[in-house]
């Protein structure tokens, strides 16, 4: 009897605290498969990789559009020509041909394996600093 009363009171409190609660409404945040498929199949991997259209396709295909909604919205609202001009030097320098793209990715992979990504970033920043957008 000594243990029954605390158990009974505990169960009563538990039942009382759970009544009247409703689950949160489910949010339909899934992107239709056909939209993701269209974005993924429209991605460009050579030449103008960092064009506005391709950046938006990358965001949609990778799920970054949901993960970074403010950045995605800012890119969508930006002028097409302004975005393309901002990344022109990177596209021309690193992605205009398969050979340049391969060299760039090998450079990044080697820097990452050696733990020198910060050094690579500094070199790229200094190398690109002279270019005007």
Descriptive account of the structure:
With 133 residues, this protein is mainly α. It has one domain (33-128). It contains 9 helices and no strands. Helix 2 (33-41) crosses helix 3 (52-62). The model has no long low-confidence stretch (mean pLDDT 78).
In short:
The protein is mainly alpha-helical. 69% of the residues lie in helices and 0% in strands. The protein contains nine helices and no strands.
Offer a few descriptive terms:
single chain; 133 residues; mainly alpha; 9 helices; 69% helix; globular
- Rg over CA atoms, rounded to whole Å, is 26 Å
Biggest sheet architecture: none
Q: How many angstroms does the end-to-end distance come to?
A: 82 Å
Number of domains: 1
- What amount of the residues lies in strands? under 5%
How helical, in percent, are the residues? 55-70%
The strand count comes to 0
Mean pLDDT: 78
Please provide the ordered H/E string of secondary-structure elements.
Answer: HHHHHHHHH
Helix count?
A: 9
